[in-house]
Amino acid sequence: MSNDDTDHELRVSKIRNGTVIDHVHGGQALNVLAILGIDGTEGEEVSVGMNVPSDRLARKDIVKVEGRELSQEEVDVLSLIAPDATINIVRDYSVEAKHRVERPDAVEGVLSCPNSNCITTEDEPVISRFDVLDDAVRCAYCGTIVRDDIAAHIDT
Ligand code: CTP
Ligand code: ZN
């Protein structure tokens, strides 16, 4: 049994089938929901814990989505804002698979370039592409670097 479970009370209840995105840096849960396109209007069953105590991080956020498994593209984008996240696939209440997110080499069509002169932000049919660096992302077309608040540049 995990520490979370033995820790007097379980803060967010377990899910039956779906995905638990764990070890999200404190404060990023709402951005996780935005990346997954979850705003609650479609009746999705979602639990969110914010700034809960964690062994690995000082404080973590956790997002539990019932009835949904994530695409590789969604996980790639999550890795940009939650680089230490663990993706747990839950089936019939047990964790069937667990993996850490990995930062991809590049992401296409998910971030918008803050440079208004960039070809990707003009009226051209060019899909954005950002190379993923250790601590930032860089527009492959104009070289603009985005280091802080990458979530603000996500096209949703
Ligand atoms: N979880 C859940 N519903 C389930 C099973 C697990 O919500 N039916 C959650 C747990 O609460 C935990 C996460 O999924 O937040 C991972 O579960 P588990 O691997 O059992 O916990 P730990 O061993 O603590 O995970 P880690 O080692 O990744 O910290
Ligand atoms: Zn650009």
UniProtKB/TrEMBL annotation:
Described purpose of this protein according to its UniProt entry: Involved in allosteric regulation of aspartate carbamoyltransferase.
Keyword Transmembrane: no
PANTHER family in UniProt: ASPARTATE CARBAMOYLTRANSFERASE REGULATORY CHAIN
Gene: pyrI
Domain of life: Archaea
Domain Aspartate carbamoyltransferase regulatory subunit N-terminal positions: 10-102
Binding positions (Zn(2+)): C113, C118, C139, C142
SUBUNIT field: Contains catalytic and regulatory chains.
Keyword tags: Metal-binding, Pyrimidine biosynthesis, Transferase, Zinc
GO cellular component assignments: aspartate carbamoyltransferase complex
Assigned protein family: Belongs to the PyrI family.
Cofactor: Zn(2+)
Cofactor info, note text: Binds 1 zinc ion per subunit.
A Gene Ontology biological process term: pyrimidine nucleotide biosynthetic process
Descriptive protein name: Aspartate carbamoyltransferase regulatory chain
The Aspartate carbamoyltransferase regulatory subunit C-terminal domain, residue ranges: 107-149
MF-aspect GO terms: metal ion binding; transferase activity
Transferase found in the keyword field: yes
